[in-house]
Specification:
The complex is a heterodimer of chains A (267) and B (595).
Chain A (H helix, E strand, L loop, with lengths): L1 H24 L10 H35 L12 H36 L7 E8 L2 E6 L34 E4 L1 E5 L4 E7 L4 E5 L4 E5 L6 E4 L5 E7 L12 E6 L1 H11 L1
Helix pairs in contact in A: 1-2, 2-3
Chain B lengths: L21 H6 L4 H31 L6 H6 L4 E2 L2 E2 L1 H36 L8 H20 L30 H30 L12 H32 L11 E2 L2 E2 L7 H35 L6 H15 L14 H13 L1 H13 L10 H23 L2 H7 L3 H31 L5 H27 L19 H31 L39 E5 L2 E3 L14
Antiparallel strand pairs in B: 1-2, 3-4, 5-6
Helix pairs in contact in B: 2-4, 2-5, 2-16, 4-6, 4-8, 4-14, 5-6, 6-7, 7-8, 7-9, 8-9, 8-12, 8-14, 9-11, 11-12, 12-14, 12-15, 14-15, 15-16
The chains are: A alpha+beta (267), B mainly alpha (595).
Chain lengths: 267, 595
């Protein structure tokens, strides 16, 4: 009697876990979406949440059933399943999972991945250089001439010249520099060239589904297309030291007019 | 419920009388059983440190504005005015990860139970190289001592995460923990790897060369198979990390630039380095790091498979397929390390390859998981404490495995990388599956190790109070990650988009405190049972593998003359004189051999 009760309770633990888990999971959601390729990433995540959610609940309920049933048996059932059953189960479920997993990657994931990485910057893309350092984001715009001025690490001085701009380069004269504040015009692609001065940081825009490590010695680039105006947050997603948790920036998507006014004010 | 049958009297072991003194028998012992227990005890002590660190992490994340004057008194270097210092937080996070992965799970589950079980289950009197085995334990002990010592040096313990990415881990000015603490961390790792390599070599040699007559590879219990595959993986994967650790030490102290590019400016000073690549470390680290998770995971699964039949009273489902799956996973685990680096700046084309390669692991792992689940099919289930923990292993393996589909998929990983989704996922797998399997193993083999049984009521309470909070914590963390919460954050207070996660973090913290405190049930049970536990018979679970043919605890020198193995390890559910099972040594004339 006690044995049966215990079996039921353990079965309930696993079945309950799955149902409460799935219910709760359906309530916790991503930050609001604000980029074009992000819709593809969300589709990928939704596909995975749905398929794995079904498999998760099914698996736990089967486990619960076996426990419930098993604790009520006085003798074992068939000792061996037939070879056929074994093979069918293994091949059937193994291949189903493979289809779910690989299918997701190939059908939904890859096109988004390609869209994101293979995208050539459009002619009107706004080009920005973001140089991460402990614990801030240096932002640079090329200015009216469209060319970034030369930099040289030996010229860097954290207060006077944080990026090590070479003042003798005429291209650098009109460069616009901002700190922790990125402003872009709505309706144009954003092309970010990432640098880091010291350790690895990661450029994470949760709303835009953009995450790219800023690695010293490399210049990874990201290109994406905002679909919303507004003020969003930029977070660091790679451990970079003491104030990693508050290496916060803002990412403002404003109208072209507001952007032009803002840029003029900076010069 | 049937009354436990009196076990057949074990064949009198040829008494291999150990005339050596106490020190050579129990401290600098070459007996694999003693060494196994030494590893297990050391690992459990390290787990207490790791759990204490986890509590500090959760105290900070659950109550970010609270002051703890008492902690300021206890840990003056880590808390100022009752507030945890961010550098101390990072050191705690780093050390928690390092201790749990390398010094708890590796010691207890891989080296500890590996040492204890493999020679017994292959019918050998000791490891193939007993002296090497002793050396391996004492180097491991030294490695743990060095790591603990690093808390007390200037700058505190290493703070660059258990993955120790340079330049953060390479430059003393980058974070306080990258002063002496990081050097000791690397030294401790190098010692750990040396010891782990010796122990892995021993397991491989033992399985290959000193199996009892009649024990063919396809008659080995899955436990032995899993240790065999995991040890081969360890031997292949660890050397690159050794190389990387040496290179990082050179970068730190001898002016090389393996991982440091030119033009670095730290603390407003130009670093005189040229031409190195931070990504090189990541490749070397994860070339070890990914197989390493299988080094920990496979023994956990193998043990779960072998404990199950004693409580289902029927053979495991699909033994052969499971063996092939272990081999396949072993091979595949060596070629998927890049899925840790999708957003690292590595070529996006490699990202596509690593995605597809990673997903192929779902095939053998699903088959293995389904075989575990199907082993319960038609079972006459006896829910003793080891079996409860095995049910937990199956459950966590399922949910953790499904989480892997998100992270192995480069497109989904772009959002989830380095968020709490990752934390939740790997805690389910190399935290939970291994932890629950370790508990299952301890409850199951304790009678064999010490000749006494653990208290069953406490053990069951321990299961309930472990599984429920564990699942709550790490399941919720997946969704915290989906909401965009990055890992290794000292607090989530600086961001508006994370403000609403405060309640979730509080719930997670409370569950974590429950989880940590319920482990006292285990510790009390462990210590109390050592002294006062009910005296155990030689085969209390009516199990079939070779260790159960010996008295509890087995004498020094195990079997004396090698046992003759007549059958596979899963002869359950057969009519036999002893009941419904036959140990592997029962002659085929007495009970027919079914596999």
């Amino acid at each position: 009697m006690l044995k049966k009760l215990e079996g039921s309770l353990v079965a309930l633990l696993f079945a309950g876990t799955a149902i409460i888990g799935a219910w709760w999971g359906a309530h916790a959601w991503l930050p609001s979406l604000a980029s074009r390729h992000g819709a593809g990433i969300d589709a990928m995540l939704k596909y995975l949440l749905l398929t794995t959610g079904v498999l998760f609940v099914t698996g736990y309920v089967v486990l619960a059933y076996f426990i419930w049933k098993g604790s009520r048996r006085d003798a074992i059932g068939k000792r061996f399943a037939s070879r056929r059953t074994e093979r069918l189960l293994a091949a059937g479920l193994g291949l189903t999972m493979a289809a779910v997993a690989e299918g997701g990657v190939l059908a939904i994931g890859m096109p988004v991945w390609s869209e994101y990485f293979d995208a050539a910057p459009t002619a009107d893309a706004i080009e920005i250089e973001v140089t991460a350092q402990q614990f801030m984001w240096n932002v640079r715009y090329p200015g009216p001439d469209g060319v970034f001025g030369r930099t040289n690490p030996t010229l860097v001085d954290d207060t006077a010249n944080p990026l090590g701009l070479d003042r003798s380069d005429p291209h650098g004269k009109d460069d616009v520099i901002a700190l922790n504040d990125i402003t872009v015009p709505f309706g144009r692609a954003v092309h970010v060239r990432l640098h880091s001065k010291d350790v690895i940081h990661s450029f994470f825009l949760p709303n835009f589904r953009v995450k790219q490590d800023a690695v010293p010695g490399m210049t990874p680039e990201v290109i994406f297309f905002p679909t919303q105006t507004g003020h969003f947050e930029l977070a660091c997603a790679e451990l970079c030291g003491l104030a990693h948790y508050r290496m916060r920036g803002t990412f403002n998507v404003v109208s072209q007019k507001e952007f032009d006014e803002w840029l003029k004010k900076q010069q | 419920m049937e009354p436990p049958r009196p076990p057949a009297p074990p064949p009198p072991p040829a008494p291999h009388h150990d005339t050596r003194g106490f020190v050579r028998r129990y401290i600098f012992s070459t007996d694999h059983k003693v060494i196994g227990i030494q590893y297990i005890v050391t690992g459990l002590l390290m787990a207490i440190v790791g759990a204490a660190l986890a509590s500090l992490i959760r105290l900070q994340l659950g109550f970010p504005d609270q002051q703890w004057p008492l902690l300021s008194k206890l840990l003056p270097a880590g808390y100022q005015g009752g507030v945890m210092l961010p550098e101390f937080y990072l050191a705690v996070v780093t050390m928690h990860g390092t201790i749990m992965v390398f010094f708890f799970i590796s010691y207890v589950l891989v080296s500890g139970f590996g040492n204890y079980l493999v020679p017994l289950q292959v019918g050998a009197n000791d490891m193939a190289f007993p002296f090497l085995n002793m050396l391996s334990y004492w180097i491991a002990f030294l490695s743990a001592a060095v790591l603990i010592f690093s808390f007390f040096v200037t700058g505190g313990a290493a703070a660059a995460g258990w993955t120790a990415y340079p330049p953060l881990s390479a430059l003393a000015a980058a974070v306080p923990g990258s002063q002496m603490g990081q050097t000791l961390w690397l030294l401790s790792m190098a010692l750990f790897i040396a010891s782990f390599t010796m122990s892995g070599l021993n397991i491989v040699a033992t399985v290959l060369s000193v199996r009892a007559p009649g024990l063919s590879m396809m008659r080995l219990p899955l436990t032995v198979w899993s240790y065999f595959v995991s040890s081969i993986l360890g031997l292949l994967a660890f050397p690159p990390l050794t190389a990387a650790a040496v290179m990082l030490l050179l970068d730190r102290h001898f002016g090389t630039s393996f991982f440091l590019p030119s033009g670095l400016i730290v603390a407003n000073k130009l670093v005189p380095a040229t031409g190195g690549s931070p990504l090189l470390w990541q490749h070397l680290f994860w070339f070890l790091g990914h197989p390493e998770v299988y080094v920990l995971q496979l023994p956990a699964l193998g043990i779960a498979c072998d404990i199950m039949p004693a409580f289902t009273r029927k053979p495991v489902f699909g033994y052969r397929a499971s063996v092939y799956c272990l081999m396949a996973v072993g091979c595949l685990s060596m070629i998927v390390w890049g899925h840790h680096m999708f957003v690292s700046g590595m070529s996006p084309f490699s990202g596509e390859y690593f995605s597809l390669a990673t997903m192929t692991i779902t095939v053998p792992m699903t088959i293995f998981g389904v075989n575990m689940l199907a082993s319960l099919w038609g079972a006459k289930l006896d829910l003793k404490s080891p079996m409860l923990f095995v049910c937990g292993v199956i459950a966590l393996f399922g949910s953790g495995g499904l989480g892997g589909l998100f992270l192995g998929n480069a497109t989904a990983d772009m959002q989830l990388h380095d968020t709490y989704f990752v934390v939740g996922h790997f805690h389910m797998m190399i935290g939970g599956v291994t932890l629950l399997s370790t508990f299952a193993a301890i409850y199951f083999w304790f009678p064999k190790m010490f000749g006494r049984s653990m208290n069953e009521t406490l053990a069951k309470a321990h299961f309930w109070l472990t599984f429920a909070p564990f699942f709550t914590i790490f399941f919720m963390q997946h969704f915290l990650g989906l909401q965009g919460a990055p890992r290794r954050y000292y607090a989530f207070t600086a961001y508006d988009y994370l403000r609403h996660t405060r309640g979730q973090n509080l719930v997670i913290s409370l569950a974590a405190f429950l989880l940590v405190s319920s482990q006292f049930l285990f510790l009390i049970n462990f210590v109390w049972s050592l002294v006062k536990g009910k005296v155990a018979a030689s085969n209390p679970w009516r199990a079939t593998t070779l260790e159960w043919t010996l008295p509890s605890p087995p004498p020094h020198g195990n079997f004396g003359t090698a046992p003759v193995v007549e059958r596979w390890a899963y002869e359950y559910g057969v009519p036999a004189p002893e009941g419904d099972f036959a140990t592997q040594t029962v002659p085929s004339a007495a009970v027919p051999v079914t596999a």
